């Protein structure tokens, strides 16, 4: 947490210096490089720690943390706007905005440094014992190192699952406002710009709610089953959008909100899925490696939707036809993710870390054996 505080906050400070000196690459280094490293560390550290504090409800724990990660944008965005209005939109105002961000984040993140601790080895909530059918639920009692995890097919299957789920969700979220306006442009009830902004807010709320609700549900139904819902139902919802087209604004909004809730849920549930398969030993490091799928999906999703919509617009198409092919691709990606999830099996024991040798209890003085047997006295 301390490393995250230093790198994330200093990234803003370096960016502020870059803006003040009009050095573009210094801004990139600070905000994009140093700050990005801090963001990644700050994201993973509390998630892996919470799973150790809540071994009975890891989905709820990760959902809470990742919901907070997504909800930060609801605070940061208007706060940044207010600061720019207060300081001004010129070079000096932007530099001051970066500076205040960095210092404020340092103060708040220091609370995490002081308060967040890893539980003692072997800690369990009072009255809780692991389920005796853990093996049937893909929940291991063993541990796998990050080095060995990336050598397993389970890691790469989950990589595909996460990449497909995120690609299908973030593509809609990135183009939500113009999408709903394009969809209903030629209908009797076109969507205004202000209504489209409200639609984006609804999708963001669905994304946040899905992170907590669906990941908590996964503690009850199991991680594999909840991903069946994310991927299978998500594919059906895309099919619904393709078939219904612009027939109902309410159906469009409800379907896309459900898709975004599955996107958020899939994002929040994957750390618990990793914990089930690989244990808690290095789950944070494993999670960090898996998030490369998020990085690729974050580029691929918007690129797919934007490029296809632009090409369709150049061909003179309008309305839902701008997105029909994109939706069919998203449906196909979710089906691929569904198949990958079905192929997940327990990790081969050869990848497990060796169990620590049991410590022998020292013999008490009265139980110390006589070195001379009685029959030889």
UniProtKB/TrEMBL annotation:
Its main location: membrane. It is a multi-pass membrane protein. It is found in: Cell membrane. InterPro entries: MFS, MFS_dom, MFS_trans_sf, Proton-linked_MCT. Keywords: Membrane, Transmembrane, Transmembrane helix. GO terms for molecular function: transmembrane transporter activity. It comes from the Bacteria. Residues 350-377 are annotated as: Disordered. This is MFS transporter. One of its GO terms (cellular component) is plasma membrane. It comes from Streptomyces malaysiensis. Gene3D superfamilies: MFS general substrate transporter like domains (1.20.1250.20). It holds the Pfam family MFS_1. The keyword Transmembrane applies. Signal peptide: none annotated. SUPFAM superfamilies: MFS general substrate transporter (SSF103473). Residues 1-344 form the Major facilitator superfamily (MFS) profile domain. The chain crosses the membrane at residues 28-47, 59-81, 93-116, 155-173, 193-214, 226-243, 249-274, 286-305, 325-344.
């Amino acid at each position: 947490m301390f490393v995250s505080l230093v790198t994330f906050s200093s990234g803003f400070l370096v960016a502020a210096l870059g803006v003040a000196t009009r050095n573009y690459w210094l801004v990139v280094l600070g905000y994009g490089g140093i700050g990005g490293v801090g963001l990644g560390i700050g994201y993973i550290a509390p998630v892996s720690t919470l799973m150790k504090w809540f071994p009975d409800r890891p989905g709820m724990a990760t959902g809470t943390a990742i919901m907070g990660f997504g909800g930060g944008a609801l605070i940061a965005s208007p706060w940044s706007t207010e600061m720019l209005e207060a300081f001004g939109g010129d070079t000096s105002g932007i530099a001051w905005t970066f500076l205040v961000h960095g210092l404020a984040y340092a103060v708040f993140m220091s609370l995490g440094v002081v308060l967040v601790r890893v539980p003692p080895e072997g800690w369990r909530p009072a009255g809780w014992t692991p389920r005796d059918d853990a093996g049937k639920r893909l929940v291991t009692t063993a541990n796998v190192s990050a080095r060995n995890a990336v050598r397993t097919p389970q890691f790469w299957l989950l990589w595909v699952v996460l990449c497909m789920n995120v690609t299908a969700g973030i593509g809609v979220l990135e183009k939500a406002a113009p999408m709903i306006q394009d969809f209903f442009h030629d209908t009797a009830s076109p969507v205004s710009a202000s209504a489209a902004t409200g639609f984006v807010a609804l999708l963001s709320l669905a994304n946040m709610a899905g992170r907590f609700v669906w990941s908590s549900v996964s503690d009850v139904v199991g991680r594999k089953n909840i991903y069946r819902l994310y991927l299978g139902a998500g594919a059906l919802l895309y099919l619904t959008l393709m078939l219904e087209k612009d027939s109902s604004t309410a159906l469009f909004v409800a379907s896309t909100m459900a898709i975004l809730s599955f996107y958020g849920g899939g994002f929040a549930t994957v750390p618990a899925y990793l914990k089930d398969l690989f244990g808690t030993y290095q789950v944070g490091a494993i999670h960090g490696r898996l998030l490369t799928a998020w990085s690729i999906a974050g580029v691929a999703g918007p690129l797919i939707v934007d490029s296809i919509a632009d090409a369709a617009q150049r061909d003179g198409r309008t309305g839902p036809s701008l997105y029909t092919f994109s939706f069919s691709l998203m449906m196909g990606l979710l089906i691929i993710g569904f198949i990958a999830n079905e192929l997940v099996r327990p990790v081969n024991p050869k990848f497990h870390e060796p169990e620590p040798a049991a410590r022998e209890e020292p013999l008490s003085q009265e139980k110390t054996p006589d070195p001379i047997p009685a029959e030889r006295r």
